[in-house]
Amino acid sequence: MPPAENLVRQQLAFQEFIQDFNHHRPHTALGMKPPASVYSPSTRAYPGYLPTLEYGSDFEVRKVRSNGEIKWKGQLIFLGEALIGEDIALKEVADDAWELYLCSHCLGRLESGAKRVSSL
Question: Where is the Integrase catalytic domain (predicted)?
């Protein structure tokens, strides 16, 4: 598709392309059907926001910082940028060994003195 002469016409060209792509053009991966013919909306309603995570009293909770790290026992531990802003819970499972959780999902294990989380 060549570029249009202005933004309004370019937007119209995009909208025409999207209509053709989704409703008319067959796709090999879909058995030569257009995407609109196989699409079905989700049965789950979008909540708009997720409830605040709550952990039991046997967990220590840390908020993941803007660089993907938490501070734990005086050290910065990198968890990942995908977790920025999330409350992560740590549960002691052995002397100086902690499992990290997001909701009920175990993310890994942190040993005393380690600077990174190991997978389980």
Answer: 4-35
